[in-house]
Structures are given as structure tokens and as C-alpha cells.
Amino acid sequence: MDVREPVVAYVALGANLGQPQAALAQAIDALDALPYTRVTARSSLYRTAPVDAGGPDFFNAVVQLSTRLPAPVLLDALQNLEQAAGRERPYRHAPRTLDLDLLLYGDARIDSPRLTVPHPRMHERAFVLVPLHELAPARVGPDALAAVAGQRIQRLDA
């Protein structure tokens, strides 16, 4: 594996099945245990309504990583963690035990069949932008926050 200089990456976490708060806490620990990767910051926990989906409310957060993993390898690791948490994909926007999305990978722009960075729909989702703004305010402008202001989101911790 090609190990590089550390890159600051941001990962969105969400869950709305099983014990979602416990699943997010376990996922953050698992992210911190990935090779060449450390969780360097964590947003507050948020409760949000599903977007374009049914089911119970989601619990969401964003973490900042310092990682030497190449973006495709990090994506594989995220998908392995989802699978280990029992993630199934029966249909688009299905309720889930764990959802991990690579939002940003440094300043990289990636457009491949497997991975698009920045995440292509992050600017449509309060559950991504609000916690990301908490960690990296320079990455989320006021116009982006205003565009998702109508979506229900509740901060649960500080």
C-alpha cells in the first residue's frame, strides 16, 4: 500500500436502526484504530429526520481524521466497518445500522466510478453541513447552511 503524508479527511456518520448512538461511538473508535489513521476531532451528536427516506430519526456526527491512507483505501475501510456493523443496502436510502461517507479528503477532487470527493450531495444535507461546520467552519459557508435551514436537526451534546 502506498503510504503518504497525512491528509485531513472528514467522514460523516449516521445510523437509525438498532442502537444508533452506540453504533456511532463504536464506529468512531474503529476509525481511530484504522492503520495510519487517527480521529483528531469529533462533532457533537445530532438527531435528524430521514432525508428522502422513511424510518426512525437518524443520529449523525462528523469526524475529522488525519490519515495516510489513500482515499480509495479509506473508502474500502469505511465500507468494511459498515458491513461489520450489519449494514444492508436493500434499496436506496434504506434505514441503516451504520452509514459512513467520505466527505472531504484534503483538497482533493476525485471523480471515479467508486468514489466522488467532495461528496456529491453533502451540500444538500443539514445532517452533514451542520456538524461539518462545527469542526471546520471555513469548509461550510453561510449560504450552504442557509440552504439547509429548513431541515430538522437537533444538537444532542456539546
**Are there runs of 5+ residues with pLDDT below 50, and where?**
none
Could you give me the name of the CATH homologous superfamily? 7,8-Dihydro-6-hydroxymethylpterin-pyrophosphokinase HPPK
Oligomer: single chain
Q: What is the terminal separation in angstroms?
A: 37 Å
Keywords:
single chain; 158 residues; alpha+beta; Alpha-Beta Plaits; six-stranded antiparallel β-sheet; two-stranded antiparallel ribbon; 4 helices; globular
Can you describe what's shown?
With 158 residues, this protein is of the alpha+beta class. The chain has a single domain (7-155), classed as Alpha-Beta Plaits (2-Layer Sandwich). 27% of the residues lie in helices and 27% in strands. β6 (110-111) and β7 form a beta hairpin. The longest helix has 14 residues, at 71-84. It starts with 6 loop residues before the first strand and ends with a strand.
